[in-house]
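Hi all, posting the design record for the shared folder.

TITLE: backbone redesign
STEP: 1 of 1
STRUCTURE INPUT:
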């Protein structure tokens, strides 16, 4: 069976988990704390980042969330998440990259570092200014997702795609950390409620990170 090396609030691991859940691919979780920089993990992935997906029996090692997702798009026909015309597939990939890079850089990464990783790895308090800036950035980014969902059923078009899974992975971490004010973002909230109600999402709602618990509404599908 596949082994997914990850930690509970890694948004890129969550993206992979959502895709594997949609495609019905079984796996087991292996906890990895990349901030520890373990030699054994660095030997597998010199970048020291999660997720890493390993099949010990077939001696397959997959690294990087996008590479992992593309692998299963090519090898598992069920529930395609990069489909449509060439233009539509390009848009799915564009938005997936936007959430993985821009949204993570501006919102998820700083908030995750301040609220969780600093407390776990350094036992130090969060930087209030950095947290305010990331939460302010979240408002702007959700304004954009609201606009997208005003014009589309899903993030990249008429059907659910990898862009939706990437978005849900990032937003779910920020929501866990209490970094989203949902007032004024009903389009994105409605879309997110739909994602949260899917079987692939349920394991994420029950998982907890040490040191910091989720926002009160986090596990509520009808928040």
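Okay, here is what came back for every position:
SEQUENCE:
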């Amino acid at each position: 069976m596949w082994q997914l090396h990850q930690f509970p609030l890694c948004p890129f691991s969550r993206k992979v988990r959502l895709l594997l859940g949609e495609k019905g691919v079984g796996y087991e979780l292996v906890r990895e704390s990349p901030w520890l920089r373990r030699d054994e993990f660095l030997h597998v992935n010199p970048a020291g980042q999660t997720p890493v997906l390993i099949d010990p029996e077939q001696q397959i090692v997959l690294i990087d969330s996008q590479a992992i997702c593309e692998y299963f798009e090519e090898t598992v026909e069920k529930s395609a998440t990069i489909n449509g015309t060439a233009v539509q597939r390009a848009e799915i990939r564009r938005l997936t990259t936007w959430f993985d890079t821009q949204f993570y850089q501006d919102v998820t990464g700083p908030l995750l570092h301040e609220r969780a990783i600093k407390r776990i790895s350094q036992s130090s308090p969060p930087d209030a200014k950095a947290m305010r800036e990331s939460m302010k950035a979240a408002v702007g980014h959700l304004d954009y997702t609201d606009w997208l969902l005003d014009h589309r059923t899903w993030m990249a078009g008429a059907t659910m795609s990898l862009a939706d899974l990437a978005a849900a992975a990032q937003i779910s971490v920020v929501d866990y950390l209490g970094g989203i004010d949902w007032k004024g973002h009903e389009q994105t909230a409605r879309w997110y409620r739909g994602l949260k109600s899917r079987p692939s999402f349920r394991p994420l709602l029950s998982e907890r990170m040490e040191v910091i618990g989720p926002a009160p509404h986090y596990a509520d599908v009808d928040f």
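COMMENT: The chain has a mean pLDDT of 97.
Let me know if anyone wants the other runs.
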